[in-house]
Amino acid sequence: MTGLPLSAELAARARDVLAGRVRPAPARDAATVVLLRPGPEVYLLRRKATMAFAAGAYVFPGGSVDARDADQDVAWAGPSPAEWGEVFNAGERLARGLVCAAVRETFEESGVLLAGPGPDSVVADTTGDDWEADRLALIDRSLGLSDFLARRGLVLRSDLLKPWAHWITPEIESKRFDTRFFVAVLPEGQRTRDVGGEADRVIWQRPGEALELAREGEIFLMPPTHHTLGELTAYDRVADVLAARREIVTIMPRAVEIEGELRLVTS
Questions:
Q1: Handedness of CA 184, 113, 95, 136 (dihedral sign)
Q2: Res 51 pLDDT > 70
Q3: To the nearest whole number, what is the mean pLDDT of the chain?
Q4: pLDDT band with cut points at 50, 70 and 90 for residue 110
Q5: What whole-number distance in Å separates Cα of residue 219 and Cα of residue 32?
Q6: 262, 6 contact by CB (below 8 A)
Q7: Where do the H-state alpha helices sit in the chain?
Q8: What is the residue extent of each domain of the chain?
Q9: Among candidates 116, 98, 261, 248, which has minimal Cα distance to 179?
Q10: Which residues contact 5 (CB under 8 A, 6 or more apart)?
């Protein structure tokens, strides 16, 4: 058990939390989507250095569940919220919010939309100016996912998502998330684009290559991202990832003292 060494600032906070001098921050429900294309390659965004959480880190698209994500008016195709709740050990309302957040955040942060005119179709292109206006409206919360889909006559395709993992930010962090991870394939005809916002760079990279870049210090990966990329190196094709059998086990890294140094471990 080696773990990751903590920065001096985080180590100081960790000692305060472990000693009971500081109460852990609550973890906000969130969704993250590992977007894949043949290779397989994964879509990664570099968070701006000014961000309060994970500044400079390369991450998958994702974010907090918005209150409107649990709207029961969202047009839906695929496994029901109740079925997703069973997979992620969550109530039906939260499960609905998680799936909707996954679809919404993927569109906001990559331009990819996991929705279609019907239960067996998917939008072919989302690169026009009108799509961009809707994407920006979703980001500033002047438009909700339900209204966005209804106005365009689309249904959310929950069957295009595969459950992958469940990570909770360590209690020593000042900003925490209770995040369910999904996997999805880039729909045929759609393409990602550099959409800006919280990110200043986007890349498509093979999982093993991304890990090598991290080892060389070229990119920075948070533990859940690093761990997920490591898991994906076991698969040679996107189809193999989708066919993988997954048991969703909650992982919350914790701080432990090893030879006088505080480190973050997952076991």
A1: positive
A2: no
A3: 89
A4: very high
A5: 19
A6: yes
A7: 8-18, 81-88, 92-110, 129-139, 145-151, 207-215, 223-232, 238-243
A8: 27-249
A9: 98
A10: 261, 262, 263
Global pTM reads 0.91
Residue 259 neighbours by CB under 8 Å, 6+ apart: none
Cβ–Cβ under 8 Å, residues 156 and 76: yes
Cβ-based burial of 235 (10 A; exposed 0-12, middle 13-18, buried ≥19): middle
Beta-carbon contacts of 166 under 8 Å, excluding residues fewer than 6 positions away, are 88, 89, 179, 180, 181, 248, 249, 250, 251
Q: Give Cα separations from 184 to 43, 45, 89 (angstroms).
A: 11, 16, 20
Structure tokens at 70: 């649990």
In terms of Cβ atoms closer than 10 Å to its own Cβ (0-12, 13-18, 19+), residue 137 is: middle
Q: Which of 1.10.357.10, 3.90.79.10, 1.10.260.40, 3.40.50.2300 would CATH assign to domain 27-249?
A: 3.90.79.10
pLDDT on residue 18: 83
Helices 207-215 and 223-232 pack at an angle, to 10 degrees, of 140
